[in-house]
Amino acid sequence: MEDLKKSIKMPLFGNTFSPKKTPPRKSASLSSLHTLDRSTREIELGLEYGPPMMNIGGQSWKFEEGQWITESGGNASGRELQRLKKKNVQLEEENNLLKLKIEILLDMLTETTVEYHLMEKEVEDIKTQHRRKK
């Protein structure tokens, strides 16, 4: 029976796997803009490219300083909102730092007060001992 199994080879369940080699990718750009000279590119794309802009749902968005900013109807309210959010984060960080400084100062004041009271007690003890010796 084993001789029969060895003699019959099923190509579907063979031990070797050899995938087809994929052809190399083209490294050239698919855009033909790089072949155009400067004057043609300026005509096609305009003189100033400016920041990227898009309209979504009737609201225009502009990419400035690494963030998308809304410009609804030409109002600067979106830009102002972004500026205020940034300022708010900055003020919260400053507030946290000041709270930490106050806590440290209160700890220092407590320590100094305790040391003062201990020294005051030592002075009173020394005065009391001195009075007893007389």
TrEMBL record:
Transmembrane segments: none
Swiss-Prot/TrEMBL keywords: Coiled coil
Superkingdom: Eukaryota
Coiled coil, from the record: 74-108
Region (Disordered) location: 12-35
Classification via Pfam families: Chibby
Entry protein name: Chibby 1, beta catenin antagonist
Species of the source: Seriola lalandi dorsalis
